[in-house]
Design goal:
This is Mercuric resistance operon regulatory protein. The protein is an all-alpha fold and 144 residues long. It folds into two domains: 64 residues, Multidrug-efflux Transporter Regulator, Chain: A, Domain 2; 59 residues.
């Protein structure tokens, strides 16, 4: 990793962070990553601070934070706002737990449908296809 000097082109930054150039440019337009000044007759250069910033953005995204939420976290990145950062993370955790709950209900319904398909004998309508055509009447809607 280069030192603090800005020596990387945007292509080299993309390679160093494993993030596409167009994604970096998009992050710049969103204000998540700085766009360095272009020197007269030269090209923009990036350094280790830019690598760290992109790493922050991608790590937060991998944890499920939207780019708007990443922007909020970046405003707190000086480390002095732990309570606010914690509140954002707690909200994200609640969202994740809600999604897990919905996915578990979907898994249950799909498992039941697959079991009915496996138990079906003969040349009759597939229970899975029939259930999808008929909706989830009488069954718990796993999306709610």
């Amino acid at each position: 990793m280069p030192d603090k000097a800005n020596v990387l082109t945007i292509g080299e930054l993309a390679k160093a962070t494993n993030i596409h150039v167009e994604t970096i440019r998009y992050y710049q337009r969103r204000g998540l990553v700085r766009e360095p000044e272009r020197p007269p007759g030269g090209i923009r250069r990036y350094g280790s601070a830019d690598i760290e910033r992109l790493t922050f953005v991608k790590t937060a995204q991998h944890l499920g934070f939207s780019l708007d939420e990443v922007s909020d976290l970046l405003q707190l990145e000086d480390g002095a706002h732990c309570r606010e950062a914690s509140a954002l993370a707690e909200h994200k955790l609640q969202d994740v737990r809600g999604k897990i709950d919905r996915l578990q209900r979907i898994e249950k319904v799909l498992s039941e449908m697959v079991s009915r398909c496996h138990a079906q004998q003969g040349n009759v309508t597939c229970p899975l296809i029939a259930s999808l055509h008929g909706g989830l009447r009488g069954a718990e809607d796993p999306r709610e």
